[in-house]
Amino acid sequence: MYRYDEFDHALxxxxxxxxxxxxxxxxxxxxxxxEFKPLRLMNGVYLQLHAxxxxxxxxxxxxxxxxxxxxxxxxxxxxxxxxxxTTRTNIQYNWPALTDLPAMLRDLAQVEMHAxxxxxxxxxNTTTDVFAGAADDEIEDPRPWCEIIRQWSTIHPxxxxxxxxxxxxxxxxxxxxxxxxxxxxxxxxxxxxxGGTAFxxxxxxxxGRLPHIAQEIASAVPAADLLAYLTAILRAWNLLGxxxxxxxxxxxxxxASVGLEAFREEVDKHYATLRHEDxxxxxxxxxxxxxxxxxxxxxxxPKTSGPFDRALLADPDFARFARNNVRRHRQAGYAxxxxxxKPVGGVPGDITADQMDAVADLAERYSFDELRAAYEQNLxxxxxxxxxxxxxxxxxxxxxxxxxxxxxxxxxxACPGLDYCSLANARSIPVAQAxxxxxxxxDYQERLGPVRINMSGCINACGHHHVGHIGxxxxxxxxxxxxxxxxxGSPDEQAALxxxxxxxxxxxxxxxxxxxTLDRYLQIRADGERFIDTxxxxxxxxxRDAIYETLDATA
Amino acid sequence: MQRLEGIQNGLRLSVTTPLEEVExxxxxxxxxxxEFEAFRDGxxxxxxxxxxxxxxxxxxIAAGKLLPDQVRxxxxxxxxxxxxxxxxxxxxxxxxxxxxxxxxxxAVDPAPTIWQRxxxxxxxxDLDALAxxxxxxxxGKDASEIVxxxxxxxxxxxxxxxxxxxxxxxxxxxxxxxxxxxxxxxxLETGQHFLQTLSYRTQxxxxxxxxxxxxxxxxxxxxxxxxxRDDLWKTNADACCxxxxxxxxxxxxxxxxxxxxxxxxYQAATRAKLKPFEVLDGxxxxxxxxxxxxxxxxxxxxxxxLPRHPLVEQGYRSIGCWPCTRAVQDGEDTRAGRWxxxxxxxxxxxxxxxxxxx
Lengths: 555, 358
Prior knowledge:
The complex is a heterodimer of chains A (about 550) and B (about 350). Chain A is α+β, with helices and mostly antiparallel strands and about 550 residues long. Helices cover about 40% and strands about 15% of the residues of chain A. Chain A has four domains: about 5-110, Sulfite Reductase Hemoprotein, domain 2 (Alpha-Beta Complex); about 135-290, Sulfite Reductase Hemoprotein, domain 1, CATH 3.30.413.10; about 305-400, Sulfite Reductase Hemoprotein, domain 2 (Alpha-Beta Complex), CATH 3.90.480.20; about 415-550, Sulfite Reductase Hemoprotein, domain 1. The longest helix of chain A has 23 residues, at about 5-30. The N and C termini of chain A lie far apart (about 55 Å). Chain B has a six-stranded mixed β-sheet with strand order 8-7-6-9-11-10, sandwiched between helices. A five-stranded parallel β-sheet of chain B has the order 1-5-4-3-2, with helices on one face.
């Protein structure tokens, strides 16, 4: 993985000092709150309902055991002993004191971490496939390009005061495990005409109040020209995007209002006059960055593993974990292991400081010291020997992290909601917890197979409800928390927005209604169909009927 | 980045003005003031960057609601100065202006980026080896073959050329054009050239079919500060060359890691050891004509029927800016007419950072 050199270290240190200066000017009154706010946001500092919140970047979700231990240290020292992994593969601390923030940032800087641009109207943390560098269907590891984008976008002179936030995701395979088409810009690595690396570029995706699926604006931008092309896109939007209405400021609204063709013309005009030679990514620089992401020293192993196979037979719980949380690896004899942060009745994405330490130890011992944060709010140990998966599983089990529900119905994405967030209309955590308890039976979940259930506490859609196979959106109805259900959304290469099925439900009706939806699927599915396949085949109507069949029509 | 007090002269436009209108208006203005109505409205940064990249060389001033924390954004987007409200905290502007020792991404300002500094650090070694190899491989070969070797795509070099469009320039440009007419050619438009040089530049560009001749001007803000009356050459020729040539060249060539020049050993004692390939400040310098003399140039121009610089027939043999160039007598050195009467033989663009007065 990437390691800081003297320049990266200096920049992060200087950023901490700059922020300290800004905090001092706020304290003295030299900066008004209105002026200070965007500056603190660009350093990851939010003001929530009850306290400040610090959001720490985990660039493209890749980190190591030393960094994970430091995250645990921060949770223990400055917070209430836990942290929350987000759908942007960042981690949030919900209870820091404002006066501790510079110390927290200094602690992070020592392990090559920061909170730069985790919020604010700037280019945010670039996300990617959680199995990057391990998946067997990948053309190329997308993470070096994410790192190049990270550096290019950090404290960008032109793009730090944009109309609104801007999110980029990159994948290196046909299969989309990073929801790129829900992003302002989604990038898919493809082979260019000359056989070199190129990017298929999608633009104008986004969730929130007015969701859009990104459209393809370019089929193969040569890798060397990626930054020039991104600059042209951002420039077109920065100059033409709306600034009069926060809900219409994202690039998705601009693309939708002028149309893809007109937007492409605008981008092409800027692209034509850019200083390409400056922005061109030299092959040697790309190679230098790629070298950091070279595969670890894998052993040559047989495809199958005796210890693994014996454990499958010996222990049904391990067998279940292996079925659901262990993923194929490109290297024979290895696997990627999903560490679910969705225990029954737990808060999705939350992890305690002790668990962080434990996972750090396990990554060091079993996964070449490498960890990943998934946008589904789970962790992944990317490179584990099949021989050692049983031992890893037992160790995870001991610290309460062996929930075998990856991609199943209780692997729910949920935002912090009204328990923490000042934007929320409704709580999402208790509803997710209730659902998790209701669907806890693992046999039932396995019978259902993969289902993505996503939950947001407000229309800002941090919980990705629009693209959940089943989505739940918290709304405020005359001071009461209600929940709107959508069906048929999808975050992957067949990205789609879910259909709203009808009137919103009170909190305690959500879990039963979802269970009826899933039961209906079990009744009507054809052989081999996943939940989403059935929805695509039959449409939302059967599920609407299931959701409302026992409810008073006026509810 | 200058800080200015009080309302500045010049056309004032809000950053909410559409780009096309800003561009049209700027075309006729030496000074443009862009007014930020809210510090959050970042359109001004893109407007400045686009104007600069499309060649606007006038003065750009930022005004309105801005924070000291935006000073680097302004500078790096192409602003020369900022108009401060009365009572603004100048010390905060100073501190924020110096808050960072580097920036990753290339932008309009000339300071080398972190990327370039990394490359220079790692390239120096690699480029030295490459230069040695190319010198070996091209030993005994002619200028065309040296240019061809430098343009070999397998090397992955980003190659540009610099030319003064002077008395001997046509030979090198002809050799380059016969290999690749799209090679970027940088011309330092110092604002002090002979008119004959400018018309010759147009004539030669057309005759050779060069498609990417770039005129590089001094930075407007620096020029306003250092030489507002265009007479710096009278008192400090080194500073004038630095403002008009050394700094603009560094800016214009930041994206190249290889530069073709027309320097020749016979021209000056400082050039006596010139090799076809050498490394200067992390950039490969390619000197295809290193072993040519005046007669070789003459012969090439004759054989290829190339247009001559109009001043040659008036006795000029090496041609720079008009204040520091004179004709030479028969028997004098070719470059005797450059900075004549001064202890100066080079403008500095071929000396490297460490040897140039700051």
